[in-house]
Design goal:
Blueprint: E1 2-4, H1 8-12, H2 14-24, H3 28-36, H4 43-62, H5 75-80, H6 90-109, H7 122-127, H8 135-142, H9 157-187, E2 197-199, E3 202-207, E4 217-222, E5 229-233, H10 237-265, H11 269-294, E6 301-302, E7 308-313, H12 316-324, E8 332-336, E9 341-347, H13 354-368, E10 381-382, E11 387-391, H14 404-418, E12 423-427, H15 436-452, E13 456-460, H16 464-472, E14 475-484, E15 489-496, H17 504-511, H18 515-525, H19 527-538
Parallel strand pairs: 1-11, 6-10, 9-13, 9-14, 11-12, 12-13
Antiparallel strand pairs: 2-3, 3-5, 4-5, 7-8, 7-10, 14-15
Helix pairs in contact: 2-3, 2-11, 3-11, 4-11, 6-8, 6-11, 9-10, 15-16
Length: 539
Amino acid sequence: METYPHNFEEKVGFNEIRSLLADLCSSPMGSDRVAEMQAVAEHAEASRLLAETGEMQIIQNEEGLFPDLRLADVREALLRIRPMGTYLEERELLDVAAALRTIEALIRFFHVGEEDKETPYPHLQDLLCDAVAFPEMEKRISGLFDRFGRMKDNASPSLMKIRGELASIEKSISRTLQGILRLAQSEGWVEQGVQPSVRDGRLVIPVSPAYKRKVKGIVHDESGTGKTVFIEPSEIVEANNRIRELEAAERREIIRILIEVCDGLRPHIGALVDCYEWIGLFDFIAAKAKLSNEWNAIIPILQPCPYMHWVKAIHPLLLRSLKAQGREVVPLDIALSAPDSRILIISGPNAGGKSVCLKTVGLLQYMLQSGIPTPLSPDSTAGIFAKLFIDIGDEQSIEDDLSTYSSHLKNMKHFARHTDGDTLLLIDEFGGGTEPQIGGAIAEALLHRFNEQQGFGIVTTHYQNLKSYAEETRGLVNGAMLYDRHEMRPLFRLSIGRPGSSFAIEIARKIGLPEEVIAEATKKVGTSYIDMDKYLQDI
């Protein structure tokens, strides 16, 4: 899909959707997928992405335990062991085993390769059609470690022998130390209840500095206060040396075993990395489904052409914000279709919801074409657009020496050059930012151009000439954001078919502008304009 400008996602709020999705992912692989997510312009691709998310929504709502996707990412570590003689650390190898268990669990969950079993989730099953499980490899790795992640003694005969000797020497040292401690405590050289400790990998006993010459041995350290020194008794020096030797031999044997295991992994590194890609994909889809379920989002009927008939459309971020405040969102009914109502011209008062309506359309359409269900009524129908262009907000640029209006015209230049029958234009305050008469004329000329190009769009404006032009021109249709003129408050409801009033006089009076100022303004614009505005309000 082609979007404009470069910060389109920020303009419509999709960057916040990305952030919410990333927070819902269970793994770094899923978060990577969120960052790589792009909207698509092909009907078949959009339908497939939505169907995958829809199936995951059902799983989360109806199924039992789904495989746990909380995994560390060791793809870089796997690629690191491509040279012979390299190896994964124990923690990394355990993470590989966890990933292999997960991919095997996913294959079982979706009955991949089981021709006698059908799955209610065909789109998710298809994602795993090329997935490969390595049950023997997983068993081999898991069998090496205990439940605490430590390599088992029986991982090899050599390791068992080394650890057996280590245990024997440690017991001997412990007995010797305890005897030395009892003697030192009876002589008062060491406080009662003191236990041996370790300094630099050597077993030592804490002794008061005044008695350090009473205990024969090597001083390894002293406390920060200087009130304790740590002495390795001479009786256990050789035993401690042997322990150091055995620990080094233990590490060498563990590395040998790790290299041996990684030699078995090396031919399958590509397939193992693919396992992480699949897990990341399912984590990403699960995040989309979880967010969609939070909003009670649905997949509308999807047409292969530009079209829009949305019933009770809700801006999901506004829903989230107002829900936290205990308030409700007013849903919108929006329709765009060729040939008669491709471009909707929305008018109405400031703060009446025009810009929110425009952003709702931009965000929901972009979400749909990114494979994310949207908060709509199930009887809604959506279409596919190849291009989404937006012009909204203050684009004043100090760097480019552009005023807000100049930036607006720069956007319009791009729109005029690139709009076609597959384009959705979203333009806020069309023609604003300059002298009203010429601004309105340029806006009307551009609107004529967009209509001739068969573009679709949502355009908000206060300009009377654009409302009149829409009333007279095939392809354009007026819409109004409704306003309660008795209570003087916006209703945030969109009514399609007639233009809306800006309620400028009424709002000025409510704010408390002096009546003589309002009267003079009324006189300047003329009674015909005021009568027309009242006529729109009456409608």
